[in-house]
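Here we describe the complex-level prediction in full. Unlike the single-chain runs in Section 2.1, the three entities below were treated as one system.
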Amino acid sequence: MRPTPLRAPSDLAAGATIGVEEIATARPSLLKRLPSSGVAMTGLGIILFWAILALIAPLLPLPSPTAQDYLAIAHPGPGLHHLLGVDPLGRDTLSRLVWGARVVLVVAPLSVLVAYIVGATMGLLAGFYPGFVDAVISRTSDVILAFPVVVLYVVLIAAVGASALNIVVAVVLASAPAVSRIVRGLAMQLVRQDFVAAAHLRRETALFIMAIEILPNCRGPLITDFCLRLGYTVITIGTLGFLGLGIPPPSPDWGGMVQEATPMLTVFPEMALFPVIALVSLVLGFNLLADGLNELSRAD
Amino acid sequence: MPSGNENPNIRLLRKELAEGRIDRREFLRFATLLGMAVPAAYAFVGERPIRPAAAASAQGGTLRLGTRVKSLENPATYSWGGYDSNVTRQVCEYLTLTDRDNVTHPYLLEKWDASPDLKTWTLSVRRNVKWHNGEDFTADDVLWNLRRLTDPAVGSSFIGLVQDFLLKPVPDGTDKAGKPETKLAWWDANAIEKVDSHTIRLNGRVPQVAIPEYLFHYPALMLYPGDKGVFGAGSQGTGAFTMTDYRIGKIAAVRAARNYWATSETTSWGGGPYLDEIQFIDLGDNMATGISAMASHQVDGLVVTDPSQAPALQAMPSFQLYKVGSAQCAVLRFHVDLKPWDNANVRMAMRLGLENAAFIELALRGLGTLGQDCHVAPVLPDYGKVPDIERNVAKAKELLKEAGFPNGFDTELAVPSDIGWIVAQCQAAVEQWKAIGARVKLNVMPGAEYWDVWTKVPFGCTIWYHRPLGVMLLNLAYRTGVPWNESGYSNPEFDQLLNQAGGILEAGKRREVMQKLQEILQQDGPMAQPVFAESFTFMDKKVSGFSMHPTNYVFGNRLSLAA
Amino acid sequence: MPGFLFRRSLTLLLTLVAASFLVFSITEFSPSNVARETLGAYALPEQVHLLYEKLQLGDPLLVRYVRWAGVLLGLRKDPLDNPALGLAIHDPNGPRYLGNFGYSTLFRVPVNQIIWNRLGNTAMLAGIAFAIIVPLSMLLGILAGMRPGSFLDRALSVASITMTSMPEYAIGVILAAIFAVWLKVLPGTSPLVGGTGWPLPSQFVLPVAVLVLYDSGYVARMVRASMIDVLNRPFVRTAILKGLPRRRVILRHALRNAMIAPFTVILLQINWLIGGVVVTETVFAYPGFGRMLLQASLFGDIALIEAATLVALVIAMATQLLSDIGYWLLDPQART
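The structure predicted for the assembly as a whole is:
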């Protein structure tokens, strides 16, 4: 599991060149220019592959992901009845992968999205109101960012119990302060810009300035961070599943599938390998997309 | 057999055996409990005692076992028999020993005698036993240990077994609100009494036939009084080993002691020690580490194995599978005070919704035996024969319809996450229940959290370990109002029959009552219970002298390693 | 500098107090759990209730936090270390001393008897991994950054992005299956017990490999990005245009500047390793801090969770302080 709050901001720190001006110029064309980046398109392709599979899962001629074929347990390998074999409980691996994509593609984006809503609001407020508001938000963020992320996840989930909702809450708690920190940094640069001053002169409300003038201008670096964070969240959910703190069974969860299959790895390696491949490919998709977007935004 | 001063109950047992009302297994168990010598009991049923595997061919070496190294400091409060007591039992010993066939042997005792009313038990302490420091093991040591084990302030689970027999509640002032409070104390100052240097007498309040078995309950280790109840590296003991190294969560090591008192002549499980050292190595909770450690030969065997580890270990030619039937099971239990479980039809429908036989493969990978939804395993000596419960989806739906759920119902099943096969059992059950319209959501929670709510959740899955007697389990789990009655089950007829079973000394008659009790559970009971798990583990083929005990106990003195 | 250092330390200390309160609130939120988990699985409801009363668990969270902090600072006796409770909890250091983290219900010893040993083991594992990750990723990152677009650069990009997309547990489980079970060239677990036919150093290979594989690619990418950035700066271009040998320019001028940004990243790897070892140690049964924390969390060993989290926080903050100071020393601009 990656240190989400540390890594994404430091990516920006390492880039070090992403300034406000570049954001402004990169903004209108970034998504339009996406097809020109082979890396980004590869990533997007992988993500779409899983997204479409997840979407049409009910239409596919697959057995239920929880149906147990206990006659298949003795010979769980790939075969005619089960294209990718069955898991230790005799459930069809392919079906669980496809339905598992539904789980992960709902939980991960949802938690990152909520983290962004919370984090961006915090960051905007902190950047817009220096002084007391900024101090409160920044110090609160510091407290949470002080934790090694895995430690925070393990302690939190173990205390409140593992469920999809609690995973979302944990991801939001751990990620929102990191998002807030990025947005705050960008907002503090932007509030000094002319177009914000102009908005002030037009007597626009603070809400309008934050939401319409500042936020859209943070988009460039945030899109990259969003993709990276999605990738890490997929890994996080998998890791929690592996540690026995993930989405509870019998729901098909890729990390949980790996955990259930690891004792069989030496006799039926494909049982664990297929979910590992699925998980790695999806994370790779998000990372490639982030990489491509990052290159594009820097190419100016 | 001399029968002049023989316990009249033994005479009764002989008669019952002769008349075919009890089988040989049951006779062996009860006759030995009542003090009949083990070889004599076997001779009487025309069998030879099962001799443990032949004595070691090789001497020396270090045996390494994968396990969890839990806290060992306070043996009286052990709660993980397979883990903690297995280290300590190599150093300290028990007064008795219940073997894998549920037959209880004298161990540090030479013999015992029960009064005809089963209230007074006279324990004769073996005479040739010495502590490692050369002092004699005497009745004073036994007295000290038994008093300590039954002292409520020490907090040993041993109390739970002998509470009615040796203790009673006495007034203990009043609480803040002025209500009188009670605490447990010996019912009589002489409840545990020293008769002479090698004789102890237990003066019980009520009849109790299982006393010798209780003395083998895993916290009932005989500790050296000078160690003040604390166990650690270098502690005194009477056993074949002394502990030399102990680091919690990592390793515990025991080395062979000289001049072990129990030779293969004195007792059937004696002899040895043949090994120089046994190391217990902590491998954590992750199922895959046990396999990796075995594959790398970092350990020669595992103390406890989960069914999910079996396929990988079976595929490795250097390991031997050992197994024995046990009464261990995980009950899918309903809280009868809560809807919809207050309706007996719903409970019956749930039982009918499961294909019990499928669970042997699904949950236990073949390492189990069929359950009959009554919590009493056929391997137990007091099991009464009852029919299997066959899956019947149509009947189950009908029952649900009668109960007012024509379209099924939704519910949640709580299950602790720390035992792999239980979660597998619940997943399989949830899947099968879909067919009858019971939509069950699994709530998998950490073990600690489950134990906080296990008697309260409407629907939960609870592990019950092996006990040598079915009536013990029924008394613990289904009698009205007892602390471990997790389902809130209360059935006057059932309680009445339980009382009756406790008072019957004729085993044959008791089994008839057991049969009735089991039938009540099958028809009206607060749970479904599809399978019994076998106790099993794997050892390297170069290990000899091992045999599987239903509670995963390891007897290190008998083990040896081929070069 | 001293003023900056003082302010920074004070902020961190306050953050630590707030964070410890957060941990306390998470773990002790449900007071009946505290009593239940102290007594263990088989306790009767009356026993739980009695302990609940005796420990005054009905009091508000803040009051209980202050009490807990009092025990930790040696101002109060540990309420559990009391023979009258019949819990058989006894700390050989006495019930009251500075740094009393309480009593672990999982291991049934005072927390201090278990936590430092585990931390030492983890420091050893993480230290070895760190000693490999830093030079390896710097070397790869610098080489790739010197010639962007070269074969090495592309290879590194592909390798590192793939490795960072691979969860640690997957790497660990697959490495163990290949090297321990099939090839039988390395031990499959690392309990740090000698004499099992596998010398202690061999038991470090797989866990260290997991940490290195997972982390090096990421750090190398950071170094590469920074290197490219610095090489494009005017002063480097000028130096090269002036005819100075490229190698010398890179070694003399570019490297130091290129290290400023990754410096923080590298130091923060220490922080990351504290969490990263949870998975690795669990996969290889390594008796370290991370596995201990996971066990404690799953078991509900409140005192141990609190202590371990606090220790992890202190380490994280110490590295943060260190990176602040380092940044301040390395980058002249930061001193203004």
